[in-house]
Design a protein that fits this description.
alpha+beta, 7-stranded mixed sheet, signal, glycosidase, single chain, EC 3.2.1.4, 8-stranded parallel barrel, carbohydrate metabolism
Length: 687
């Protein structure tokens, strides 16, 4: 198998931010074609570029463009990269400024002649600074036109130990801090540090929080500036003596401004050293551009999914989008998609979209988009079945009918995200007629723990993609090595809290909280589930939860045990199911009989199987596979097959090189296992 609470009230220090706001020079432009290029070429065959051309990255990981930007003095720079991406596949890059790296998405712009901006903020030194934009996937980077840098005036520092502190203490036991110490926040939700920042005049500012987090667990905080809040991650820095910065753009008023950083999880916040504030310009009064091409991307009997082309803004950032029906705001979302739920079946709705920037300037309304919900009970799997729940030992739909879901599992999102694009997911929903997509997010193996924000956002995106197509989505916490799920318990709490908070209004989810536990007892796995499930339930009381079983989700069979350990000592929760995984060329009658017996006593869901050996490779045993499928059909056991990718192994359904461009429909690019499982996924459902 794939393997006491204290409150310290200190007077807030009010210090003039700047005696006057100096005039800022216009941004300095550095054309990509004049930069150092590794594994790319200068071209001029797509209109709309500046200078003499643009850089076309080679389609491989590690291709880059590097330039040197100059700053008259140390400060904070706003760095803008102008790009075009004529594909529908995101081409992410790591942006390194003097070696300090942040990752940014460079999504499709609709055409190679459509240019857009991505902006980051970064500290820069006086003099020369190196900026390198490196492709991080095999698709390479987008076409890059130029890099612009706008260097702010030097920042003013506000020491955290001089601020107002709630549920925290001033300490000095970790080297590298500035001032006389730092604030160690209590490990509770709501602990905070509050600064008062004075600005001589109103203007935009960059706020930089210097922090250390000696754990491996992200300690996110809500940053409120005069009551307007944004959330920021404060990931592990490797040691309590290793200090880094997180920046937040903000609009400051003339005079006093309140800046509060509040812990949002039970781990509390990081150690905070100081806040640096730099005014970088006069108040922003310019509206964002109007969101273009609003469109309906999917409907169910109770929802309409919308998308639109991203707006742009002179600040480089769009804070959010508002969707209106008439004059009523029906959704506020951070990205260029939204799902409007709670609608009546067969009802028609007309919407417009606006964009807002960090200064709350709002664009004019977009063109209208009109869509009609589907008739009740018609159309997609979700439209037919609605909110699922466990009834007895079976999975039932909202009408109480026992059902079986059939679909596919993705491969690891760190390796084969390119196989999950618009075309492939359309094929899965419409050509394969799948009921369910399992979103397999590995935790280790270069997965979630390396970049929680990136991988959580990928899961958010795929949930929305499945929802737009009326498919169910299994959110798979794909823990594998180490096999003890408790190793990742804190990470799991953070991840599932965000997922449940954002998506609890959806009716098409299932949460798989431990992919394949191994090397531990059932009581250890049960303890993990009993701790994690209440965390999810406080935000999402309705979504079924799938619990992994011992010995790589074999109900213990692979360790010489059986289903009786789960039957006799189940998890202390309701609306849950237990998972079973098998690979037909390795797992014979003993495994098949165990699944059969278990399904009569406890709710079972086969979230992963293959027609090959347990390596996901080798020859196919379709005869044994069909025996399993016949049993699962008889006992209404839902399943997803491993895996929907073009991996080189025989268990990947597509031939190598199919992703990202396809074709994904039909059988021309399917391996033998792909042809076989597609036929079985396509078998008409008894909904």
């Amino acid at each position: 198998m794939h393997r006491s609470i204290r409150l310290v009230a200190l007077a807030a220090i009010v210090v003039a931010l700047l005696p006057a706001v100096p005039a800022q020079a216009a941004p300095t432009r550095y054309e990509a074609e004049s930069a150092t290029i590794s594994q790319g070429v200068v071209e001029s065959n797509h209109a709309g570029y500046s200078g003499t051309g643009f850089v076309n990255y080679d389609n491989l990981t590690g291709s880059y463009v590097e330039t040197t930007i100059n700053a008259a003095s140390a400060g904070t720079a706003s760095i803008t990269l102008r790009f075009a991406n004529g594909t529908t596949v995101n081409r992410p890059m790591s942006i390194a400024v003097n070696g300090t790296t942040v990752n940014r998405d460079f999504p499709g712009t609709g055409a190679w002649t459509t240019w857009q901006d991505v902006t980051i903020t970064a500290p820069v030194n006086a003099g020369a600074n190196t900026v390198r934009a490196t492709a991080t996937t095999a698709n390479g980077g987008p076409n890059l036109d130029y890099i612009e840098a706008d260097v702010a005036a030097p920042s003013n520092d506000y020491q955290a130990e001089d601020a107002t502190i709630s549920q925290g203490v001033v300490e000095s036991n970790h080297a590298g801090f500035t001032g006389t110490g730092f604030v160690n926040l209590d490990n509770v939700v709501g602990s905070y540090v509050e600064f008062t920042v004075n600005a001589a005049t109103a203007g935009n500012a960059t706020l930089a929080f210097r922090f250390a987090n000696g754990t491996t667990v992200n300690r996110p905080m809500a940053i409120a500036v005069n009551g307007t809040t944004v959330n920021r991650d404060f990931p592990g820095t490797g040691a309590w003596t290793t200090w880094q910065e997180v920046t937040v753009p903000a609009a400051l008023n003339a005079g006093a401004n309140t800046v509060r950083a509040t812990s949002t999880t039970a781990n509390g916040g990081p150690n905070l050293d100081r806040l640096s504030a730099s005014v970088i310009g006069p108040p922003d009064t310019e509206k964002p551009t109007v969101p273009a091409n609003p469109r309906a991307t999917g409907t169910t009997s109770g929802s309409i999914s919308l998308a639109w082309d991203a707006a742009t803004d002179n600040s480089g950032t769009i804070k959010d989008y508002r969707v209106r029906e008439g004059d009523t705001v029906v959704a506020t979302v951070p990205g260029a998609t939204a799902q409007i739920t709670g609608l009546a079946a067969s009802s028609t709705h007309t919407y417009t979209v606006t964009a807002r920037d960090p200064s709350d300037n709002e664009s004019d309304r977009s063109a209208t988009v009109t869509a009609t919900t589907q008739p009740a009970g018609a159309g997609t799997p979700v439209a037919a079945n609605g909110q699922l729940h466990v009834c007895g030992v079976r999975l039932c739909n909202e009408h109480g009918k026992e059902i079986q879901l059939r679909g596919m599992s993705s491969h690891g999102l760190q390796w084969y995200y390119q196989c999950l694009n618009t075309a492939s997911l359309n094929a899965l929903a419409d050509d394969w007629k799948a009921d369910v997509l399992r979103i397999s997010m590995y935790i280790q193996e270069d997965g979630y723990e390396t970049n929680p924000r990136l991988f959580t956002d990928r899961v958010h995106n795929l949930i929305e993609q499945a929802t737009a197509r009326g498919m169910y989505a299994i959110v798979d916490w794909h823990m594998l090595t180490p096999g003890d799920p408790n190793y990742n318990l804190a990470r799991a709490k953070t991840f599932f809290t965000e997922i449940a908070q954002r998506h609890n209004g959806k009716n098409n989810l299932l949460y798989e909280i431990a992919n394949e536990p191994s090397g531990v007892s059932w009581s250890t796995i049960r303890s993990y589930a009993n701790q994690l499930i209440p965390v999810i339930r406080q935000y999402d009381p309705d979504t079924p939860i799938l619990v992994g079983t011992r010995a790589w989700s074999s109900l213990g069979v692979s360790d010489g045990a059986s289903e009786t350990e789960v039957v006799n000592n189940p998890v202390s929760a309701t609306n849950i199911m237990y998972t079973f995984h098998f690979y037909a060329a390795s797992h014979g009658t003993e495994y098949l009989n165990t699944l059969s017996r278990a399904a009569d006593k406890i709710p079972m869901f086969v979230t992963e199987f293959g027609t090959q050996t347990s390596s996901g490779d080798g020859s196919n045993n379709f005869t044994r596979s069909q025996q399993y499928l016949d049993l699962m059909a008889q006992k209404k056991i839902s399943w997803t097959n491993w895996n929907y990718s073009d991996d080189e192994r025989s268990g990947a359904v597509f031939t190598e090189g199919t992703c990202p461009n396809g074709p994904f429909t039909g059988t021309s690019r399917l391996k033998a296992a792909g042809v076989w499982v597609r036929d079985r996924v396509r078998t008409p459902d008894d909904f």
